[in-house]
Amino acid sequence: MLLDEDPATLIHHTIGNFNIYPDKVAIGRINESLSTLQQARDLRIRESENALRKLSRNLQTLASQHSETIASHNSTDHASQIVELDTQKFRVAKAASDLEIEGERLEQELDSLKSCLQQLDLQGVEGDDAMKAKQEAEDPTLLKLKVYRCLGIDADPDPTGSYNKATIRNAQRGDVHVVNIDTKFSKFFYANYLWQAL
Questions:
Q1: pLDDT 10s per residue in the chain (198 long)?
Q2: pTM of the model
């Protein structure tokens, strides 16, 4: 026989000399780590799946809203609304410009009237001496014509020198009326007509 001892005894002694406890403990720790890692991985997978399902629902909701918006949108209505709003904008701008011009004109007229009022206040009720002398020297007909002109009425003489036609100018409305004065109508009628034209 090749060996001095029984092979079974040798194998038994060899197995008894092996210390496998630390290896078993290490394998147990590895198995625990693998189990913990698998649980964490499963948890992350579940969370990712839940997030994916939520995002899928949001995507479907947004896609349906988008399709409804596209279906309800009418490009021709949108274009017509833009044109209408542009037209309104230009009208408002033109009205504002016209009002600004009219305001400037009224300011100039107000300044002119203020200066005229100041001159009249300085002259007093009867006017100054030069004005009195001028009024006494002026013809009553010329005074009437000046009053008419101040009101916007021009009396036009005919070839004989009598005043049978009047031109009425209304600066506020931009109107001009020509009235032929006939003796068959009363002065009261013409006075009413002239005031209405003014």
A1: 455 777 788 888 888 777 778 888 999 999 999 999 999 999 999 999 999 999 999 999 999 999 888 877 777 777 888 899 999 999 999 999 999 999 999 999 999 888 888 888 777 666 666 666 665 555 666 667 677 777 777 777 777 767 777 777 777 777 777 777 777 777 777 777 777 776
A2: 0.30
DSSP result, the chain: --SSS-HHHHHHHHHHH---HHHHHHHHHHHHHHHHHHHHHHHHHHHHHHHHHHHHHHHHHHHHHHHHHHHH--HHHHHHHHHHHHHHHHHHHHHHHHHHHHHHHHHHHHHHHHHHHHHHHHH-SS--HHHHHHHHHS-HHHHHHHHHHHHTEEEEE-TTS-EEEEEEEETTTTEEEEEE--TTS-HHHHHHHHHHH-
Residue positions counted in the chain: 198
